[in-house]
Amino acid sequence: MERMKDRVDGLEAMALSLARLGVLGRSPAAPGTVATLAAGIPSAWVVAQLPYGWACLILVLLFPAACWACDRAQQILVKADPGEVVVDELMGFLVTMIGLPATGLSLLLGALFFRLFDIWKPWPVNVLDGELHGGLGIMADDVAAGLYAHAAVAFLLPLLERL
């Protein structure tokens, strides 16, 4: 059972809620996949409706807030990179989908490739995962996995759409 500090104040509760994406991180099975599907897909669709510059600004603003929330959650839960911290999956999936059309096919490919690269952790994703710590460490490997997934979707999507 995870240990939490005796008292969680309002700011810490907010950080924990953001890091868990509300209740999504408490999913008993595959919380990262649940967060990608339940929060990532709708969020990516909304962000895709914005001009590219605004979409990039959202990601730039989300990153430090998510790093902070991940760092605080890790301290509150007294556990390094807790599985219930899933805001990193949201960020990684948004990186996967930025600048791509939000169609059923692209969102499905994005979710599949993002989860593949996030779980597999090819180089340098595995280096970021092992060497960085705290909130930045939790976030960085998912952003890197998102970059790999973005490249895969951007490459495959036009080919599959021609079929």
Automatic annotation (TrEMBL):
Pfam families according to UniProt: PgpA
This chain's source organism reads Desulfacinum hydrothermale DSM 13146
What is the name of this protein? Answer: Phosphatidylglycerophosphatase A
Single GO term (MF): phosphatidylglycerophosphatase activity
* Biological processes per GO annotation: phosphatidylglycerol biosynthetic process
Where does this protein have coiled-coil stretches?
A: none
Could you list the residue ranges that cross the membrane?
Answer: 52-70, 90-114, 134-160
Q: Which InterPro entries match?
A: PgpA, PgpA-like_sf, YutG/PgpA
Q: Which UniProt keywords apply?
A: Membrane, Transmembrane, Transmembrane helix
Q: Where's the YutG/PgpA domain?
A: 19-156
